[in-house]
Request: fold
Amino acid sequence: MITNAQEEGRENGGEERRKMGRGKIEIKRIENTTSRQVTFCKRRNGLLKKAYELSVLCDAQLALIVFSSRGRVYEFSNHNIRSTIERYKKATDGSNSSSITEINAQYYQQESAKLRHQIQVMQNSNKNLMGECLGNLTVKEMKQVENRLERGISRIRSKKNELLLADIEFLQKRETELEHENAFLRSKIAEVESLQQLNPNENLSVFHGFVPRDEMLVRNMLQNSTAFTIPADKKFLH
Reply:
């Protein structure tokens, strides 16, 4: 006689077995050669059977080609396998070319839209910097435009002062050179004048015309030197 406890135990055991079912097989390469070959044969036959059933049930044109690890070929086709392969080539060639064209068209459209958006943003930004089209800006955005303008003006002033300082350094250097040339010419004139005083009759013919030319050159250089003179303590206003 089966008690209620035994019957309940059988029911629980059956339910546990139903819950467990078949264990999952880990999909990885089978290292044992014999086991690998046996598994290949079993699964190959199952695959061929499924291919046959699919072709019959769904009236599908189907071709299946399998190469074993030893290089043996197994195939199945419900039509001529070569004609099925040719049909596949034609279908893939057409679909690939059309799909590539569509992909390229979509890519260029997206890039064109991005460029148009960037151009629009830059145009709006330039207008904002010129004080135009400010009606749609918030207070925060106007502050950002103001900060950009201030930074730009600061960089312009810095570059302007840099160029002015370079010009001043050049003019000061040129002024020093002219002063040295003037001093040299003055010494030469003084030397000529002293020689004329010592030997007025003998050297007049030699130095005649030389002194006036040197004096004229000195006068011109002195005038130019005065024009180029710049106070050393001059400061620039921003």
